[in-house]
Amino acid sequence: MGSTIFIVLFALLTVIALAVGLSLRRRAKSASDEVDGSDDAPRAAGERRKSLPIKHQSPSERAMLRSRSRMAFAASTVCGLLTLLVAGSSCLVQVPTKEYGVVTSFGKPVNVLPNGLHLKAPWHKVTDIDAAIQTDSYEQSDKGSTCVQVRIAHQATACVDVSIRWRIKQQATEALFKDYRDFGNIRGSLIVRELRSALNTAMDSYDPLAVDENGVSQAPALAALSQQVQKEMSGTIGDQVEVLSVIIPVMHFDANTQSKVNALLSQVAQTRIAAQSVQTSKQQAQANKTLADSVSKDPNVLVSKCFDLLESGKFTPPAGFSCWPSSGSSVVVPSSAK
Fold this sequence. Notes:
Layout: H1 2-36, H2 45-51, H3 59-90, E1 92-95, E2 99-105, E3 108-113, E4 116-119, E5 124-130, E6 134-138, E7 148-151, E8 157-168, H4 173-180, H5 183-203, H6 222-237, E9 241-253, H7 255-297, H8 300-312
Antiparallel strand pairs: 1-4, 2-3, 2-5, 6-8, 7-8, 8-9
């Protein structure tokens, strides 16, 4: 709009300067003709009245008229060149790489331009819209929580770290500009809003307390939830925005839910420890029975076990100790007979 005003202004100045120059030239020429033709027959009454102001002009005054005429023509030429320069610059527009140009005529979108050099009308305005791939991350950090709050099972809440990659589609650029007017509004009022909605839909039945007897979570994996959110968003705004990927790396539960999860995992761990203790006791009993059976058949088994114990360093024998039974002694093996 500003360039259009300048074009009209310079064009008017060009016309005015040209008209003044022509008028001054006619006056100078008319004055010269009056001097050269003073002895000729009188002119018509109408012509006499027109030439009356310059009839008795001196040569210096006629020279001044001619000078002013040349100045007016020069000013007309300069204004004309400025008009062409402004008009030329306002008719060319460069749309940067990875951007779309929305052409508006008096505020109304009329066209969308790809990147490159284009011609347009002087009264058209081009607004650049970013067409590159956008990566938005919402994560919990020490500087402030930007993760997305969602509602999960049992009316609990969680804060989800999420990253989304998206870009607008060229065929939807004009409609998006009409609805949101600005790229920042597209992100805030469309992308973020739909992301929150899709996350709440996907997380609605997520139960962090659903684990099996081994402590393995039965809730959907975060990768599966990420795909579900991407599918949900693509179905809602896929005709306007291409949702390339959604990644959910971690979820932060509220304090009450997190304490329940910790208590549950602790109980599962204690159960597994108890089960392992039972299994160890069974294995130890079986080993003792095997050893007793071996000793009953061969007393030297105890001698072998004694040497193994000394070699491992787990036993420090007293002075005079020997793994071999002393002379006259015998190895006593408890009898299992009753």
